[in-house]
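task queued by scheduler; priority normal; single chain, no ligands, no partner chains; default sampling; output format set to structure tokens
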Amino acid sequence: MKARARALAGLIGLGAAVPAAAEPPLCRASVGLEPAEAFVGQAVGYHVRIEQRRDVVDLRWEESLSFPAMRAEWIPTLTGPGASEATLLVDERRVLFPARAGRLALPGARLACEGAGRVESVNVPASALVVREPPAEGRPPDWNGLVGPVEVSSFATPDRVSLGGSVSLSVTVRGAGNVWTTPTPFAGAFAPDAAELFERPAELARDTGRRLELRQYYSFDLVPRRAGTLAIPEVRVAYFDPEARRYAESRAPALEIQVSERPGGVGAAATPADEPPSPPPAPPGGLAMATVAALAGLTGAVLGAWLGRRRSRLTPSRGRAPRDAQREALAALRGAIASGDAAAAASAAARGLRLALERHAPGACSRSVEELAANAHADAAQQLVGLLARLEAERYSAAPGDPLALARAAETLLAR
């Protein structure tokens, strides 16, 4: 009986010694690339998938994403059910366009995941993308690096005009790839005695949703110089199709404009060849169309501002006051330079530059260099972004050069 009691007591003691199960982490992060291998200029989906518990109250970047040797386009973050009822899945997304061939490193990053009473740091793993040049075999001589497929359309209005008037001519290249590389259409297409072509600035538009679609707009004013039929040639755009692994071509058909002599009795003088074209005539229903266009522009501006405020669920780290943080970053930078620690100096310099950019672009600590460059309008902001881009490219290069030199340049810039 006593032996049984001692055995029971031992089992109870053993049970008490078993530690309680560890509490699961607040967040886990993984990275995905679609596709995992790509061609130069091809659109690649980059996903940071964050599995977070439903009791998480805040999720923010401690060390932001960066994409050396790539152009990055932001697309909206998706949130949905996680692997269990207790979790959510946050998909932070970018579309990347590799600028050169090779094995391109995608540096890791770090998140702060905050729950009730605790904050955890979550590492976003580094990754790499293998990039190849499109094949030389079958490459068209007029190919300009465009990766498709793409659709091309052209439009001219009006289709009848008198001498002294002008025609509004537009070309749109639409696709998911690097459409901004499309060569400008109609170069040398019109003899000087037939028509003059006046080019307007090209525009790039983005449609973001579950996928990214880009549209490159080319606009022209075309001024006929003689009566008759003015032929506008077809638009032919060569592209590389990464799925089919071959080159192809997209076309927009040729157009014709009927040009008549100046109406008699009007008394208007001919347009000199060296004057800019007159504004193109309004399309049918001009006032109504102009009103619709104005309303569309206003709606777009309001929607753009709303989307700008909603750019991401992930917010910059909420730490000390910006000026205090800047002073600490500058002190860390000077200490790393003095000790000759190139890696620490480069890291401190990048942090200091991002903190300095917060004055010009709030949220700079959590935004990619490409996003910052698109919003760096002031000269001071452009200097900071330019140096940050060089520094990050140097930090993550396969064959780094002298990051200490860039760190010293950052120290000089930040000390001003």
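post-processing summary
- Residues 150-279 form a domain with the Immunoglobulin-like fold (CATH 2.60.40).
- The longest helix spans residues 286-309.
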